[in-house]
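Hi team, as promised in this morning's meeting, here are the two structures we talked about. I've kept the exact order from the run log so nobody has to guess. The first one is mostly here for context; it's the second one we should focus on when we meet again. Sequence first, then the predicted structure tokens.
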Amino acid sequence: MRARLIYATLLVLALPYLLLHLAVRGWRQRAYWRNLGERFGRYRQHATKPIIWLHAVSVGETRAAIPLIHALQARYPDYQILLTHSTPTGRDTSLQLFGASVWRVYLPYDYNFAVKRFVRHFKPVLGMLMETEIWPNLILTCHRERVPLMLVNARMSVRSAHRYRWLAGLIRQSLSSLYAIAAQTDADAERLRQLGGERISIMGNLKFDSTPPLAQLQLGEQWCAAFGSRPVWLAASTRAGEETLVLNAWRQMQPGKALLIIVPRHPQRFDEVAKLLELAAISYQRRSSGAAVASETQVWLGDSMGELFAYYSAAHVALIGGSLLPFGGQNLIEAAAVGCPVILGPYMWNFTEVSRTAIASGAAIQLAAAEELAGAVSGLFDDPVRREAMSAAASEFSRAHRGATDRVLTLIEPLI
């Protein structure tokens, strides 16, 4: 009871910040100002079919959900799939991936009145929260309204587990109220169990079940043909401050005719990275220009959405962003799916288990510090035999870990 009171107080205190956050983010990215009513449980859609609801916060979770959503649509064609998001980029990604075949709205903030409106408006037959989404009021409302709610593709890092212990009683009550928890790994399952989770199974990671779209593989092949014999290094999903480290390594390498591709994690940073390249007096082009990459271009700025598979398939080596600085890293599974050798920075705590397994399989190498980056990339550029071995290991690593989608379908089958 005390933890719930603290949580309710924090929500009240957070309201001015949330409104300010929307105002500031909306100034930079106008999509934040659209559909504001949904943030507080106001919706226009009215269902004529039973609803299966899945919450995917942003781009990464939405892409991870691709195989599951396709499987649900194939198995339950008489049901409406509802996707909820927390960010405009997640929402835009689901529109790009699924079009009108799914509904998409924002999940309301975790205020009692807002989540009650959401649950009572859509009346889902079941709900699935992706990865690490523990919202106490939402979970309690679903429990009271008899909506089975699961945590799927669930992961729980050491850091996240430590933060959740500040509200241990409330988190324990929330996790124990879930119909089921399908964790990615044994380590995730154990941390969730220590926090109070029950009915936990191991499902693996949905991202391993994602099949690279043929159109993107073909696009990657077109780029490779256009690049010719140039070695290509991809810095994928980079975060603020990492591009500077990447460019420092690039200069140390004296790369000659090699091409560096930088794909920032967040689209609102595309212009920021372009200015960084201009200030550094580096010859660069933007993907959004549509122009072929010139032979004198040193850096190609990947300012496009939804083409990460193509970038990975065109690269000889890929650095996984978010790992050079303490952001916790991004997922390497998409790179492995197309057989791209991977370099990880020292900070991969968000993906500890998948990183450990990829390194052990020979699909990835990890740096002890960002200063090692130039040497690691140069070493792989100069050793095609090792690159080929890492590529083969990455493809095998990807194949060996498939099957999570079928495990989730088995879990939800008794409910539909």
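And here is the second protein, the one for discussion:
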Amino acid sequence: MHAFRDVDYDRYTITKEYDPDVETVRQRDMIRRAAELAKEREDRLGRRLNACVVTFGCQMNARDSEKINGVLTAAGIELTDDENADIVIYNTCTVRDNANQRVYGRLGNLGVMKKKHPDKMIVLCGCMVQEAAVIEKIRQTYPFVDMIFGTHNIYKFPELLVRLLEDEGMIIDVWKKTDSVVEDLPVVRKYPFKSGVNIMFGCDNFCSYCIVPYVRGRERSRMSGEILEEVRRLADTGVSEVMLLGQNVNSYGRGLEGEISFPGLLKEVEKVEGIRRIRFMTSHPKDLSDELIEVMAESRKICSHLHLPVQSGSSRVLEMMNRKYTRESYLELVYKLRKAMPDLSITTDIIVGFPGEEAADVDETVSLIHEAAYDNAFTFIYSKRAGTPAAYYESRMSAEEISEGFNRVLAAVQKEARKNVSRFSGRTMEALVEEVNEKDSGYVTGRLSGNVLVHFKGDASMVGTYQNIKLTENKGFYYIGERV
């Protein structure tokens, strides 16, 4: 049986002196208290207390879930993928309305479980619960939820966990905004050899369809010294690939007097010994500078992949979306990138059916897909988000026309991706082995610098290593290869 006093708390904190008043120290003490409370429950149950964290949405949510898992583990609570667990935490996304509906459906199932096991604890966090209407719906329709907390105060999770284990009834701790950036929390990473690193939070762009600035708040950048310290710490623990995360990484450093720019930050991360690959996302096209292109082109470590959301190929629609660039300026940027880095893989996001869009606008999106020569794209049918300006716009296309337009866009993406990914056929490239192949245990799956997957013969001992792979068979979006 796990005892809280057996937890090595030092492994969860950074090695520097703290002022006793620093928030991180207070939360570390809360982890100790949570461990005591978890032990008391374990003694009553006669087994380890366990928890299941389910993540919806983007890489930033995934990173937040790693922090939640880290705190739970530090408190001696066992992690599981089974939602029959003692504690179930949904880390939610609210970019599209159907994401909310998925969570509501899953909550209904948890409610049935809780009737059979009243001690079960149910927690909601993430972007969805930053909406006041959502909180009210949870209160009225799902009163069995034990705790709700938002995106701005995730660093308080140790304290909130204590309150949960003390059984206070429904706990709601959601802030509208914060200027605080507190990152020194325990983390349990999905992969020991790669990790996300938050460099900023929030967004100032206010695209007319997007709820993110309202739920994640305004842009807040971390100090570069703190970021670099975290990257060094990760490298010391065996991490060789980092992904720098933010809603718009290109605007990193704004509002921080004397801080370096995003290209400057990349150059500093590149100096960290042990880091072999650097990725980042997401980049807003309006803020991608010539300096960033130069730094990427000259770098030995920055991966040859850029996610550059376009959303639409029509300048008219882009203006309605408040994207602050045109079709022409976006393509000019793509041409600059291709000239500087011929092997660069570019991926994107595309919305079809935005209110006010017409068939001719979809035609422009299809033609842009071919001109930009994407390696892949995430395509979505527009989903109305209450609280955004676009929610009040009128649609000009029927559901059938939107579906037809979506299918045309998807077909163009698939055709272009197959053609562009095939350019690597026959070449030998370096792959970071991420896992044993799910369908064939005699194979492993690796990821190329350009973010393309390759499957080749291997075993679990290769996971986390870099292998030179000859790309022998192009399967459209991925390769079959062989070690050389």
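Starting points for discussion:
The mean pLDDT is 89.
The chain is about 35% helix and 20% strand.
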